Amino acid sequence: MSNLLQMGTDFEKKLKERAASTENMLNSEFRKL
């Protein structure tokens, strides 16, 4: 059970990191406009 919980936590971290990097990318694109 704790193994599943750990996987879920790692997955959530990856999602947040990906969302943050996507947001940064979009922000820099908007600055170019």
Describe the protein's architecture and organization.
- The protein has one helix and no strands.
- The longest helix has 31 residues.
- It starts with a helix and ends with a helix.
- By secondary structure, the chain is mainly alpha-helical.
Structural class: mainly alpha
Proportion of beta-strand residues: under 5%
Largest sheet, in brief, is:
none
- Report the strand count: 0
- N-to-C SSE string, H for helix and E for strand: H
Please tell me the overall pLDDT.
95
Could you write a compact summary of the structure shown?
Pfam families: MbeB_N. By secondary structure, the protein is mainly alpha-helical. It contains one helix and no strands.
List the helices and strands and how they pair.
Elements: H1 2-32
Main attributes?
33 residues, mainly alpha, 1 helix
